[in-house]
Amino acid sequence: MLGLVLGCQSGFSGHSSAPTPTDSVHRIVESGRLRVGMSGVQPPLNMKNRAGELIGFDVDVAEALADAMDLELELIERPFGDLLSGLEKNEFDLVISSLTITPARNARVAFVGPYLISGATILTREKLVDELEDPVAVGAPERTWGALAGSTGEALLREAFPSAKVVTTDDLAMLVPKVISGELDGLISDLPYVRFEIARHPDSGLAELPSPLTTEPIGIALAPGSPLLANLVGNYINALEYTGLLMQMKVYWLDGNAWLSELPE
Asked: In angstroms, rounded to a whole number, what is the distance separating the alpha carbons of residues 152 and 216?
């Protein structure tokens, strides 16, 4: 794979006197680094272990891409709501952070993928599940829901349930105790995160609704105007899928919970 990348690099200068737009892949190969932005607070896709190191499905994907490109990986943490603006400011090369591909986001940045299909669902208390299967109950004015700031969960709440109250945060884990205590009726997030919190608090009475509210493609964001980088990342994601490595990552992080012991108490 390195030979392919270097082969592309050797052709960068060419012989034409006409100026050639600089694709992000040129800078990445020349620097020897792949800078990836993520929030670090979206388990099991990205989170911190007891040593303060980033781990999770997104981290494994980023590491696999950097290894395939023979580049040093640099993980850069930002609040979820700041990731796309950071990409636009060239603070990182890719965003891999449980980021749903939406038309509004795709109008700002390019996407590769999806590398995962997820969906928004509600994390609530077991005793509310039957009641909340009715959308009217979800959107009632007396309901208060939590969501990650800047997420599709927040957008869904504000658009589909405008009468309900919304509390946003840069770290959903801060709201989970409020769901357990009854201060919040629940929170809306990606299905993997909701199931993570249920697994982490097995005796707390937390539960998910039987059916997700949406189906969402999760993709890798990159700056527009870099078709070579998009092609390169897309090819490597396809290779990870073809070889079964991407599925192995999904099984480990999404279908099991052996990694729970790595997390802080």
From this structure: 9
Of 206, 58, 36, nearest to 118 by C-alpha is 58
pLDDT, one tens digit per residue, over 222-255 is: 999 899 999 999 999 999 999 999 999 999 999 9
With helix as H, strand as E and coil as C, how does the chain read? CHHHHHHHHHCCCCCCCCCCCCCHHHHHHHHCEEEEEECCCECCCEEECCCCCEECHHHHHHHHHHHHHCCEEEEEECCHHHHHHHHHCCCCCEEEEEEECCHHHHCCCEEEEEEEEECEEEEEEHHHHHHHCCHHHHCCCCCEEEEECCCHHHHHHHHHCCCCEEEEECCHHHCHHHHHHCCCCEEEEEHHHHHHHHHHCCCCCEEECCCCCCCEEEEEEECCCCHHHHHHHHHHHHHHHHHCHHHHHHHHHHHCCHHHHHCCC
Structure-token pair, residue 141: 């004015």
CA 71 to chain centre: 22
Token pair 């509390």 is found at 167
Dump pLDDT digits (tens) for 139-189: 999 999 999 999 999 999 999 999 999 999 999 999 999 999 999 999 999
Cβ neighbors of 51 (< 8 A, separation 6 or more) are none
